[in-house]
Fold:
Amino acid sequence: MADSNEMTINLVVLGRTQTGKSAAGNSLLGSSDFESHHSPTSVTTCCSLGRSCRISGIIRRNGCELALRVRVLDTPSYPHSGLSKEQVRDTVSSALAHHFREEGLHLALLVLRADLPLCPDESNHTIQFIQELLGPTWKDFTAVLLTHADKAEGAGFSEEAYLHSASSTLLSLLSSVHHKYIFLDNQKSIIKEERAIVLRKLLNFIRQNNYQVLLLKHSKE
Structure:
């Protein structure tokens, strides 16, 4: 990278309406860049890019501390209440091709709600959509972000108990992405405290993928 004392990670959040994509993006950035609130319709209608300040105390390489910069691309949901699949795919593909050409490392975050079941049809459609966006190596560059973990915990599920009770559909999805997953608490005060832990986990996923860069052919087929 241009600055040997700095590392940049480029993230994209993908998922269904009201899973908490925008809120997750805000927590990763430590900001309120993305509009996020409960609504009877899909809130996000276009892609937007948020950038963090330099973050210290997160990563060390070769015995030296590196500053971290985080870029997050927020995307419209799929399915969307006001856009067709083709409109969402083309919008995200175009923004993604530009965003992931920037310097840095890459990871897509599939956002699912920990307090709602994942049905087979939903999983199949989501996987197909991500494959169309990221290409054949999508599994290497995708991690699952399970939001609303505070609600699952409130129902008596620890992370271990949750995974033990999870549906075969969710377990199969987690297996397909090499068990790259993170539970995210949606209580704002806790999210702020756990941000460094989450970022370290994301960096570990990127390290497991040998710091590879995702190369996208074109914004559209």
